[in-house]
From TrEMBL, chains A, B, C, D:
Keywords, ordered alphabetically: DNA-binding, Repressor, Transcription, Transcription regulation
InterPro entries: DNA-bd_HTH_TetR-type_CS, Homeodomain-like_sf, HTH-type_TetR-like_transc_reg, HTH_TetR, KstR2_TetR_C, Tet_transcr_reg_TetR-rel_C_sf
Protein name as annotated: Transcriptional regulator, TetR family
Organism annotation: Melghirimyces thermohalophilus
PANTHER family according to UniProt: HTH-TYPE TRANSCRIPTIONAL REGULATOR RUTR, HTH-TYPE TRANSCRIPTIONAL REPRESSOR KSTR2
Database matches in SUPFAM superfamilies: Homeodomain-like, Tetracyclin repressor-like, C-terminal domain
Domain HTH tetR-type, residue spans: 1-61
DNA-binding region: 24-43
GO molecular function terms noted in the UniProt entry: DNA-binding transcription factor activity; transcription cis-regulatory region binding
Length: 195, 195, 195, 195
DNA sequence: TATGAATGAGTGTTCATTCAT
DNA sequence: AATGAATGAACACTCATTCAT
């Protein structure tokens, strides 16, 4: 693996454990056995490193979301499920990066933050578009605001980075199923109605 | 208002805007027109101030949750709604504190963090207990894991601090209604079933 | 002497010897037996220290020049001599500051440099005004450009900071006399003309 | 133009604009589109580059001064004028080099500085010798100290690098004339005497 | 000839904290 | 109850220089 990739890897590990502000460049280079000069040979600043980590994460998400959106063989409900799965999987597989991504955005400088925010906004609006399409096409109820539902889904999924442990008592697939079942049919007992 | 209260107030404002690590004691005392010595007369350390902010927030939440739990006049579904309302209201009314609470926990020292985490855990388990009671008493479906549902609800509500703007296009009551409607009945179109 | 004054004094000594860029804050505080924190308690930056040194120097010059200009008991020729004397004396008495002043202006930030340049310009134009008055009032030749003569006088005097040593073979009063004699009557032998 | 010459040219430009200490080797090589290794192939150190710039400048001055001194067809007064013209022209034509020469000598290492100082001293003593010859041969007054006069002339001319702008309101020839007229005949109005 | 990677010592600056008054 | 002076350890970052290729 290249020196630059090594720096990224180690710094994600340290940023996740100690936090971005609390991790010094010294910490990063010591973990790699190189010197500060080496770090600054590959990165212009500490902030630029954080920016690269953010872009790697959000660009991957957007790429995969795009693939889901383009699929013609599945309906909007399935697309929604795929996106929920995407978000949860990403947290399971790249938990460290996910936690850095969600926690450390405030440490980007204004320009980087604007770029990242724009991409996150795109991801959100793509999801909202699926829900709106599902409403138009009769898959989803039309009496709920699509924008608020979108935030609800994102909150539900993204919050997982705070607690979800792939080695814990629930698998990520169970998580996806529970989330989808709740989102689609709700938690209220229905036989009350059918009785 | 006492000097100490003033310090807390100003520091919440600054911690929310700039972040805890990025706010210096100097920033805090300058905003108040006093000197650093004054700060250290009232607080042993910067971390202790953060701890107090956290405890104020979580203790208030726990107190109100306790009041909801104790009510004998409403069923579990209504208690769930009251807790969703509590979480959303708290973000609307004490947005600054909420954001500091959710973002800056990593800056507590291990002991403070343990205390706060225990209280957050209590809040979560209290919510989970309501859901489990609702399941037992026939209000909620029994085929969903209560623990995962609890995380889903908390994620949905707490995530709001990331985007919810009380002056924006949605009121907090609309938010509560959309969240509850989704949680209880789901977003799938039901007339398919009834046909 | 106050700590701040001490810092100024020591740093003038070091800036003169080693140069501003080549003198570190560490050098300054070590020479005083204090720590870097102390330096930054009194100064916002290294540049601000340099700015204060510059302003002290030029403000003193301007103040004394003003006193000369206001005198009603002497003519323009005498005022010119007093200003030459002022410049040479200042170099003799505050040689270190003079050298820092003339050499290190490029290290001021743009705003500070603008302030200092404006004051130097004022000093120069004050001198030029005396020469122009002397021309109008018949003391000086009118066939020489006052602006160029002013630069010539300033160059002659200010250059002394490069070589003049008060302990050397010429006193500052001899310097003033030679400069004035040359400026007023020139170095060409006159008896050629009168013969 | 050779790579080495290019480096010299660009670095004079940068040293003049930003200062020697404030210009990094990186700045120099970036301006040329080469890498640091290239620089160190042609120069042993940053200081050696500065030394070469200094030597080029002073050697050129000394060479031209030598030519003036050797002329048998003109008297000392004319030789003085030629030297004044040489100094002013040099500033007009090689302003950048001139400014680097006058400002950055302190950044030479002791040996280089000694070499350059010796050459500057030679230039000054050569000028002083002309003045002393002029005194002996009846061209100049004998009641002024030749050493101090020499410093006065050098100051007058060299100071020009601080302000003289060839595109400004005065030409270099005007400057030479004004300086020579002042130096030879002084600025005092003579008709007082002749009346 | 020229490069690219790496070093190591240094820079200006920040800041939580202490403490005599 | 509050101040002002001082500390010391840390921080992000720079840069002249080296050297294998």
């Amino acid at each position: 693996m290249s020196v630059k990739q090594n720096i990224v890897e180690q710094s994600i590990r340290l940023f996740e454990t100690k936090g971005f502000s609390e991790t010094s460049i010294q910490d990063v280079v010591e973990a790699l056995g190189v010197t500060k000069g080496t770090f600054y040979y590959y990165f212009q600043s500490k902030e630029q490193l954080l920016k690269e980590i953010h872009l790697m994460y959000i660009d991957e998400l957007l790429k995969r979301q795009e693939q889901i959106i383009r699929r013609a063989d599945i309906n909007n409900k399935s697309k929604l499920m795929e996106i929920v799965r995407l978000l949860v999987n990403q947290i399971r597989e790249n938990g460290r990066s996910a936690r850095v991504f969600f926690r450390e955005m405030r440490n980007l400088n204004p320009e980087s933050a604007a770029t990242v925010k724009q991409k996150r906004r795109t991801f959100r609006l793509n999801l909202q578009a699926i829900i709106e399409a599902g409403m138009r096409e009769g898959e989803f109820r039309q009496d709920l605001r699509a924008d608020l539902i979108t935030f609800a889904i994102l909150g539900m999924c993204n919050w997982s980075y705070n607690w979800f442990n792939p080695e814990g008592p629930a698998t990520d697939e169970q998580l996806v199923e529970t989330y989808m079942e709740t989102l689609l049919h709700g938690m209220e007992r229905l036989n009350k109605l059918t009785k």
